[in-house]
Amino acid sequence: MLYWLLKTVVLGPVLKVLFRPWVEGEEHIPDAGGVIFASNHLSFSDSIFLPLVVPRKMTFLAKADYFTGTGLKGRLTKMFFTGVGQLPVDRSGGRASSAALDAGLKVLRAGDILGLYPEGTRSPDGRLYKGKTGVARMAIEAGVPVVPVAMINTDKVQPTGTVIPKIQRVGIRFGAPLDFSRYAGLEEDRFVLRSATDEIMYSLMELSGQEYVDMYAAQMKDSLKAKKAGTTST
């Protein structure tokens, strides 16, 4: 399988030598069964370094654009994202959100690991932003634990917009699994979903040491973009 070939033969050994990832909390990685790894999101490379240190296969929900390119570049991009365990989903909202939920639940019900970024997009400034409730909904509906994961220094290794990473150490810190079985059957209750999501984000804040911002990262990005456009036009 391409996933294991890239991880154990082609990319994995090289990345481990160059970036020397350190890991804390390995004992919190379950040996079997469906589980969600909920991570902060600092860099594109999060989806590469996190699976690198997890013994089991991980699947991420990735935007469908990565799989629809044309020509040689498009085929290579699709092959790479498939190889590193990415699953294409339309994240435009509405029915697409339901499709993403179904795709994630399928992974969890098969007893596998699903990697999710509750912030929904990369942090624009290194701070931790408000989590979206999809991660809590999947955990409650599938009846699986959530392992919080803090990625450390990946934004310094590969800042947004850069292609070639800088050679620095990265860290991955795993927290104790969060059990939401007390909410079984309440996956449609928005208050329950917000409470569970906030619990996940609090764990991520403690693990990562990031400053927490009570707004969505996408909103901050839009605000920064509008501010930049306003400055440019004056």
UniProtKB/TrEMBL annotation:
Biological process, per Gene Ontology: phosphatidic acid biosynthetic process
Pfam families for this protein: Acyltransferase
Gene Ontology CC annotation, any one: plasma membrane
One annotated GO molecular function: 1-acylglycerol-3-phosphate O-acyltransferase activity
Keywords assigned: Acyltransferase, Transferase
Domain Phospholipid/glycerol acyltransferase positions: 35-154
Domain of life: Bacteria
Record has Acyltransferase as a keyword: yes
Official protein name in the record: Phospholipid/glycerol acyltransferase domain-containing protein
Organism of origin: Phycicoccus elongatus Lp2
